[in-house]
Amino acid sequence: MSACDSGALTPVDQAIATLLECAPAPPPVEQVALAQALGRVLAEDIVAPADVPAWDNSAMDGYALRAADLPLAGGWLPLAARIAAGEAAEDPLPAGHAVRIFTGAPLPPGADTVVAQENCEAEGNRVRLPAIRHGEHVRHRGEELIAGVVVLGAGKRLRPPELGLLASLGCAQVPVYRPLRVGLLSSGDELREPGEPLAPGQIYNANRYSVGAILTRLGCSVRDFGIVEDTLAATREALRRAAGDCDVLISSGGVSVGEEDHIKQAVRDLGSLQLWRLAIQPGKPMAFGEVAGTPWLGLPGNPAAALVTALAVARPFLLRAQGLAAVLPPALELPAGFDWPAPRTRRQYLRARLEADAVGKLCVVPHPRQGSAMLTAAAWSDGLAVIEAGRQLVRGEGVTFLPYELLLQ
């Protein structure tokens, strides 16, 4: 009997570690215009081509001078020039003079200090300056970056701040990985699409939309293969066809122990089943394997269970397969706004949200109904409260909270 068929449940962290070890190499690298790079994963280190800033410049509008030329108590200095942002400052500052200067403008050779204009008094061709501190309000060359240092490392998701930084370095194009192509399949003869009439015993295919949306938010290119007929032959054919066109396969449903659950056997026929049944609630039937060399993730059919396992277990694998370096979400430790008196044998992922207690302090509050088929709790919540197996919890104790916004990036 294989480990997949034994009665033992795989701990969640062990399952994630196994998935990360089996993650495929990232997709091929392509060059894209900076304006098209939002959300893409950087494929190569970006090195600063020059010092940033490239010269000493003024941090504000005011007057630049040599600090040693001004008496300790301040005084009047004649003005030698006016330097605006974008202008060169090639002429040295004459001894005993100041220059009118604007934010971002280069300091003339010899100047070492800037005084804010609101602290000065201009009169004709001279300016009265207060007592100063040497070097204040000057942005020094290389203060932010030194030429040759790594600015952004490969494996970084490009957000608006990174795009701005790359633009400031003059990068018109950036090397990124091609989006991960994920094939999405839904298993179950009972499934119908929204808008279609339901016969007795039929339900709408919620997982196609919730899981598909998660994949899109994570930067994947989703290839939807629709609903798979509940027969072994049809399941094998759908998986075989999808494997030839995708980097990763994800199915929902068909991984439990029912007579109509054909996904696991079809995976075994076409490849191998490496993992099945996790110590997680909801989502115990989750599985992992490969189909004709293409990694496959089998999510449970129950909608809340599919959502939780996609976010908590599949997400790190999908990010690593995209080439991301950091794949585990930062967890928040917050006070529990509830008691958990009875320990469970599986790690719990409760759909929960943040609410203010009687004194205005934020705490984690779970939805009262946590059924694995109920999406109302997921829509009500802001994230997932994590309670380890065997733990009891008293109101006010710290509990791990994973906000959806952190799980969806």
Walk me through what this model shows:
The structure is a single chain. This protein has 409 residues and is of the alpha+beta class. It has 4 domains: 12-27 and 179-321, Molybdenum Cofactor Biosythetic Enzyme, Chain A (3-Layer(aba) Sandwich); 32-48 and 152-177, Molybdopterin biosynthesis moea protein, domain 2, CATH 3.90.105; 57-139, Molybdopterin biosynthesis moea protein, domain 3 (Molybdopterin biosynthesis moeA protein, domain 3), CATH 2.170.190; 332-407, MoeA, C-terminal, domain IV (Beta-clip). It is built from 8 helices and 26 strands. The strands form 7 sheets. The chain has a 6-stranded mixed sheet with strand order 7-4-6-5-9-8, with no helix packed on it. A 6-stranded mixed sheet has the order 16-13-17-21-20-18, sandwiched between helices. Strands 19, 22, 23, 24, 25 and 26 form a 6-stranded mixed sheet that branches. The longest helix is centred in the last third of the chain and has 19 residues, at 303-321. The protein is elongated, with a radius of gyration of 30 Å. The model has no long low-confidence stretch (mean pLDDT 94).
Provide a quick synopsis of the model.
The protein has 409 residues and is an alpha+beta fold. Helices cover 19% and strands 29% of the residues. It contains eight helices and 26 strands.
